[in-house]
Amino acid sequence: MKFGVRAASVALLVAGAAAGVHLGEARELPQPQSVVANEEALLKQRHARHIADRASRTAAEGQAAAKAASQVKVAAGQARALERKRKEKQAEQQEKPSGSVPYPGKIPQSCAEFKGNRATGCALMLKKGFAIAEFGCLEQLWTKESGWNHLAENPSSGAYGIPQAFPGKKMASAGDDWRINAATQITWGLGYIKGRYRSPCGAWSHWQNNHSY
Prior knowledge:
Elements: H1 2-27, H2 33-95, H3 116-127, H4 135-145, H5 182-197, H6 200-210
Helix pairs in contact: 3-5, 4-6, 5-6
């Protein structure tokens, strides 16, 4: 009886050991190839995403740097342009003429009611052969053009002086002092009016219709 029990126990131990061996072997079996392939594919996808993200960040940083550099370049260009304009304006101010040359001639009694450059204009107009009645037209014409200011300069067109000659250096034909001498400007202006409109009133009529003469 004892021998039978012992034999049964041994049999159970052997069976348990065998079962354990089988279980161990089952745990150590290699995974199917499909599972390994899936894991490798996932790793590759993660790696590809990592590379793509890094490339995207690098590209964004490069674009930001390029944009910043472009903005700096534009700002520098604008600063240079402003500085150039400032210097040009400063040079123009330094070269801008000043002063005047007094009219040495006699002012006729018929022009005595006028003063300054208007009196000079009246006297020279009579000297040019126009009737005193024409001065009303001449006075209005050059009041509109320059206010009878012999230093008047149109900043947009560059027209200059009492008659607003364009360019102003045209008046050099009447005298080298055309920049500061009202009489030189008026002499040139009267010659221009006579040659193109025949009279100051003809020039004034044209101005009223076209706002230029």
